[in-house]
Design a protein that fits this description.
Two copies of one chain form a homodimer. Chain A is of the alpha/beta class and about 300 residues long. The first copy, chain A, folds into two domains: about 130 residues, Rossmann fold, CATH 3.40.50.1000; about 120 residues, Rossmann fold (3-Layer(aba) Sandwich). In chain A, the strands form four sheets. Chain A has a six-stranded parallel sheet, sandwiched between helices. In chain A, strand 13, helix 9 and strand 14 form a beta-alpha-beta unit. In chain A, helix 4 packs parallel to helix 5 and helix 6 crosses helix 7. The longest helix of chain A is centred in the middle third of the chain and has 13 residues. Chains A and B meet through helix 6, strand 11 and helix 7 of A and helix 6, strand 11 and helix 7 of B.
Chain lengths: ~300, ~300
């Protein structure tokens, strides 16, 4: 661990030691940060983050916040950052809800078709900003079904895409709506913002993530979704276009092996696992784990701590 | 189809023609019937069922009703049959909720451990009848979570099994409860009553089945369940013990290829697909389908229609 100050033989060293941190700073122009477990945990900012981001900016680094949490729109993320004392621009935020809207836009999703969301405000707001009509989401959160003889559940035949993300208000109504669209509307897309099993919705424990809602719709439709968030290549291609910098000069900083680190590795980015989120050191070092970041360390602040030495 | 009266060359004939129906009646002592799509559709009895069951009984055949629908207990099924004018005994009913309780009993599930149910009354009642303490289910149907700083969702550490079945009142509370038990209680079992994608909850359309709720819990726990309903061998072993008749003298009659017919085929039963439920003739004859029943026909009544010829 960085905290014990030991850097083993360079060839096998995966700990972010002062030397490797300086190498990283020299070779990277864009730092891509996951948010939950990296910048904050629930509503708690992780120690040292504001200073680290400030130093990186002062060194001319570009920052991007790449989160699979689809419950917020980019605007809501700006507010969340601000509430924690961090000033971030909307253009620096790449959420999976935004990715879903961009996926539809880049694939020329017809304007006369609608989107059905199993998810929260983030998806609805990003769809509206991209000019798409979006049904479901929070609007269907309280809906119940009364099962009566001859009752037929009606759905909109103009829904051409179902977008599924984390939904704390998941219910049978939404599952049936999404299922009918995917099974009965010809060509209807099934898009998952991401498939994270769990996430730190609060700072004390983990909660079911979008993987749970996606699993529910896979189970009823026997279909597999198009994933637009991490670790899918869609979001990385989008970032590459945005920054116009080779991925070898980007570093993905995250707390999850199967989303963040895989996302970076697949694209040829440098990768840094921080242990401030869901992944523990034993999980990283488990022989069953086959996702190996370039470096690991405790928290984001370790990236700049080397500068003080 | 039986209705067009054509029986093709015997070797390739899979339609239940009068001759094959008579052969079936001669060679089978126990008829295992699925319910939804076979006996009824939603709240509508399928034509000719009462007469067919009566004739089978008069011929000395044993009948068993083997359903993956876990929302009802055996007692509730007796009431449903009665409401449709059919007198069936509780001992003739083998529901997946009952199978879940029997699985725990036969595996000596400790009496001081509890069961958490993502499901409806059927699971709760069968667990209580088997002497197990069962939490969740309908009791947690209306529960919501208020996300506050320092909020910790508490779960019972004595839950030793999570049983997941069809749950029309699925919510985030239950998903989190089940997820915490499976992820954090050492040795906690994850049992699925079944994994049916959809079912005829009403007579006009299909609705998400237990596969959806099981998918949600798989998605958040990244675990695979033990399945006790069709097509798993557990329920068949139980039926074999109960009737003490070789499976070659049993016939599974169902409307689903991937549960009913597979269940029968795996055990060496004779199998009869009825087209009165979810499977269409094109789906049966699709080259991609690799589950082939011994026979298929329109409805259960075709089994005894041959006797009148």
């Amino acid at each position: 661990m960085a905290s014990n100050g030991v850097c083993e033989a360079a060839a096998s060293c995966r700990i972010l030691c002062p030397k490797s941190a300086r190498d990283l700073l020299d070779s990277v122009d864009v730092f891509l940060f996951d948010c939950d477990g990296v910048i904050w945990k629930g509503d708690q900012l992780i120690d040292g983050v504001p200073a680290a981001l400030q130093v990186l900016r002062s060194m001319g680094k570009n920052l991007a916040f790449v989160t699979n949490n689809s419950t917020k729109s980019r605007k809501q993320y700006v507010d969340k950052f601000l509430g924690l004392g961090l000033s971030i621009s909307e253009e620096e935020i790449f959420s999976s809800s935004f990715a879903a809207a961009m996926f539809l836009k880049m694939n020329n999703f017809p304007r006369d078709k609608k989107v059905y969301a199993v998810g929260e405000d983030g998806i609805l707001e990003e769809m509206a900003l991209a000019g798409f009509t979006c049904l479901g989401g929070t609007k269907d959160g309280g809906k119940q079904i009364e099962f009566k003889t001859n009752f037929k559940f009606e759905h909109d035949e103009n829904v051409g895409a179902v977008v599924v993300g984390l939904d704390k208000y998941i219910n049978y109504y939404k599952i049936q709506y999404a299922t009918l669209c995917i099974r009965e509307n010809p060509g209807c897309l099934f898009i998952a913002t991401n498939c994270d099993a769990v996430g730190n919705l609060t700072d004390l424990q983990e909660w079911p993530g979008a993987g749970s809602m996606v699993g529910a719709i896979c189970g009823s439709t026997q279909s597999e979704p198009i994933v637009v968030g991490k670790p899918s290549p869609f979001l990385m291609n989008f970032l590459r276009e945005r920054f116009r910098i080779p991925t070898s000069r980007m570093c993905m900083v995250g707390d999850r092996l199967d989303t963040d680190i895989l996302f970076g590795l697949n694209a040829g980015c440098k990768t840094l696992l921080v242990l401030s989120g869901v992944t523990t050191l034993p999980a990283l070092q488990d022989p069953a784990n086959n996702i190996h970041p370039d470096y690991y360390t405790n928290t984001v602040s370790d990236i700049i701590n080397s500068l003080a030495i």
